[in-house]
Amino acid sequence: xxxxxxxxxxxxxxxxxxxxxxxxxxxxxxxxxxxxxxxxxxxxxxxxxxxxxxxxxxxxxxxxxxxxxxxxxxxxxxxxxxxxxxxxxxxxxxxxxxxxxxxxxxxxxxxxxxxxxxxxxxxxxxxxxxxxxxxxxxxxxxxxxxxxxxxxxxxxxxxxxxxxxxxxxxxxxxxxxxxxxxxxxxxxxxxxxxxx
Amino acid sequence: xxxxxxxxxxxxxxxxxxxxxxxxxxxxxxxxxxxxxxxxxxxxxxxxxxxxxxxxxxxxxxxxxxxxxxxxxxxxxxxxxxxxxxxxxxxxxxxxxxxxxxxxxxxxxxxxxxxxxxxxxxxxxxxxxxxxxxxxxxxxxxxxxxxxxxxxxxxxxxxxxxxxxxxxxxxxxxxxxxxxxxxxxxxxxxxxxxxxxxxxxxxxxxxxxxxxxxxxxxx
Lengths: 196, 219
Hints:
Oligomer: heterodimer
Strand content of chain A: under 5%
CATH superfamily of the largest domain in chain A: RNA polymerase sigma factor, region 2, helix turn helix motif
Number of domains of chain B: 3
CATH class of the largest domain in chain A: Mainly Alpha
Distance between the termini of chain A: 40 Å
Structural class of chain B: mainly alpha
Number of domains of chain A: 2
């Protein structure tokens, strides 16, 4: 069914339409929450909260931006709220999960079959978690999720000049942290591409 | 213009956000300045690394969890409507106290009957697929969701069984159970053998259980 029709149905409290509509975005939302928190436990919990928030707020969606951009805004804001709350409580999601004795894995399924891929995946996630929320958010949106400057300015509710300068600082911060890692050169080998 | 000027524009250049003259000037500068070119290469490596980052696998407890929470919320919203409707009749009486009490009693009885019907109907309409009875033994590798459609006559024993299951089972199911009422229990993230064992126990107590596959193992 066409997305606009599904959105109208959702706004008329049709829960079945909501499952159909958001079923198309659940992977995107899970990826986003995973990047913010770096573990499946929090990604699952916050991802579920995010979808519940979308369900409650979908009547506020007015079509001024695309539905996808609006979703990014709602989910990113929830992730940032949660990170700030945890900072106030002075706890760490990862430590919390470890203390409770587990990190639920994503079933028996893993898309990363070789060691290099797994190491690269872990390295990126570790460095992302070392960045400030502001820098982590913009790198997730631009370089991992592939949003353009205009979309990011809508998600973050700031102007394009701010997006550019923040992105520049975030990339530099990521690069510096990456350069201190011993396996950095192996992991990026073969990725240099000239000719912009 | 010095290197600082160009370095501030490297990100925009990489993202092809500079206009044609700016782009040309930057290209010329990079050809003549080794230090800036090195920085540009490093920046490009960083961006490529992030752009090609492997995606995390989707957790089954997330897939099952958000759906069951939406259904739960939807069900509660329907019940909330009934509560509001009842409260209308509980306003200060316009007639005699005895007459108002009579109306309230009648409304309460009607609401109770309607309420039960809505709860039953919502289960039927919101989970049309889950009512199909799958054979768990045919796909033991899949991840299952069990839904208790009716608890039967031994409600307390069914609830007790679910509480015990909650204490002993793996965390995936617990995450989904956290938001469920035992009366309308949806237990997600179960492996085939676990789903089969729990289903048999519930059915032995007289509960009606619907089975649904929420995730399958990739080949």
